[in-house]
Amino acid sequence: MKTPILIAAIFFSGLTLAQEKKQDTVKTKTIEGVTMTKQIFKKQSDRFVYDVAASPVTKGNTTFDLLKQTPLLSTTDDKTLKITGKNNALIYINGRKTNMDAESLTQFLKNTPAENIQRIEVITVPGSEFQVESSDGIINIVLKKKMSDGTSGNMRMSNSQNKYNSSNASFSVNYRKDKLGINANLSGGESINPQSYILRNRTGNVQNESVGDIDDPNKNIGGYLNIDYQLTEKSNLALSWNSWANKSYNSTINLLNTITRYDENGNLASTNYTKTKNKEDARNYNNSVNLNYELKLDSLGSKLNLNAAYLNYKRFQYSDNNTMIKDPAGDFTQNSKKIIQDIPQIINNFSGTVDYIQKFKNDFTFSAGGNFNKTKTDNDTKNYTYPYDISGNQLPSENDFNHFIYDENIYGVYVTFEKKFSDKLSGKVGTRYEITNSLGTADSWKNNVESNQKIERNYNNLLPYLSFNYAINDKNNLSYSFSSRMRRPSFWELNPVKNLITEDNYTQNNPFVKASSTYNQELTYMYKNSYFFILNHTYVKDQITQVPLQRSYIDPKTNQERIQLAYIRTNFGDKQEMSAMVGIQKTFFKQYLTTNFNVGVQHNINDGFLNTDPTTGQVFDDYINNRKSTSVVIQTNNTLRLDKKKTWFLGANFFYIDKQQIELGVLKNLMSLDLSLKKNWNDWTFAVNVNDVLRTNIVEIEDFQDNGNYNYIRNDQYRRNLTVSITYNFGNQKVKKVRDIESASDAIKNRTR
Questions:
Q1: Where would you say this protein principally sits, based on its record (predicted)?
Q2: d(CA 388, CA 395)
């Protein structure tokens, strides 16, 4: 289903030498030999730079495949990318954040040829000029600069098989003529996302277990259109439109629930069974438009950049939740309880940004800017509960309605100073000042009794930033960065809706969640642009997470003890993460083997306490997480060229994440082995990928509380899959790419995920 049961943040200029032999003054010169050397991976100021244009792994890959093989980057679900030691990785293109929602961005990256990319920049600690939250890092994709007019494009088709079959297709085209550039994409696909769950919890003498499957069918279609026009030699005007639609009808949950009761001596007293059969129909639409104006002020790179944007997001979700008990024949056909939920959400955002960059001849850069975001979300939730008597007769419904409207205004300004003091030393200092005003109103009707809530928050934040980079010599480089950031809750986290999993198991969002503060420090040492050592420390105050709360209660219908388990979205104390990592990115045997390997240690310190649902006031047993953990992380990506002509490639990627303490308990170790075979033939690329070969990428979380409460989650999302893809590139491959523009609504769009 669409509603997450848990969210676990898992960290994780060439030189050519030619010897020419001159035979005489008349004969043509002949080149005796050419040797090319180029730094593929290096540290620059505030970022790591991976020059993929000089790497043999680019040809025939998708951008997503290439990012998975980039040093410091990883993915555990083949959907989201993470930077080591960071919560999220935000995607930028040519220094501008992509104006897409999470689903369409994944499809875009999986359908964009890696041949278009010049380099990938990994910014682990973004400066004040970037609108990012929490400990987010940035992946900046720099496209190749093409020199001629014309038309080019690519078509890609893929088919995947895990538990079910899925297919995707995309078509992209680029056009440039004189001052006009047009870039468009259309992609779509069908899939069924399967999951298998084991949910087990115990308090006192009662244990509850739910075992079963979730199947989530999806149909997607989306695309983008970017139009860029050069007004003068110094100014450009651009219009960008992005759209994505998802339809997920007949999503199902089928779980067998077992309630086991024991006496005071631990002997089995009774066992009861029920079945959960839920069906959900959902669809969502995401449309955004952005108008950009850029004025170049001088030949040094000074410029003024203006953006105005509008974002509209709609989601409609209708679910039918049924608890079934056995009929006299022993079959689960009799209803015990039915709950119908209608959960729509509409988000409208108007935003604008101004960025001014002034460069001076003495290697000094001054930047200043501001942003404004006005967002309104409308959530009109309706719950209809239909109880049944012991004979299976439906009783009058119990209605629970909640209309939640959330208004938020964010004002931000920043200033940065960047200076290159010498060929060895450079630094940057800056700060952001943000003002946030929000008002949430909830009008509720429960069994025809009206209640009203108003949640108003106004806060200001000063967020400093500092970094320096020191090149000790040609082989050794040292850098340090510090930043402070905020993390505002996503809009779906604020919507006070209860999403049912079973009769006694649900997730609860929370309109009282406040923004958390994050402080990041990072020290990096690099040797020969191939070997690196990174120390990282992150401190999160009032972290936003999901907390498992449980309690026992007496069922009034059966007069027996039961357990309720709720995953509550809230602020949950403070957290620290410390990590140390060493790695290598290098090619061997005349570029026949390219390897990226890193190994590290991460230490987590948790400090949180909760026993009450902030939204409903329901009191649960104490949940305490004040534990520490130390874990090992290993990742390696390897590409082996199988022939001299560079047409056959074999890939072998592996990651291992040791068990570690997170908010929900102890996350057991995760690992995955991925293999691929690729063939390049003229403008065609044929590829076969097998992910999670050993079927070891399965989430397991276990928690023991001092009061005796126990909680266990096993989530299998069928990561093992076989994918076959065909890509065809056509047209003039020297076509210049359209200018990629950062939308003013990008910071808001990320919070709709």
A1: membrane
A2: 5
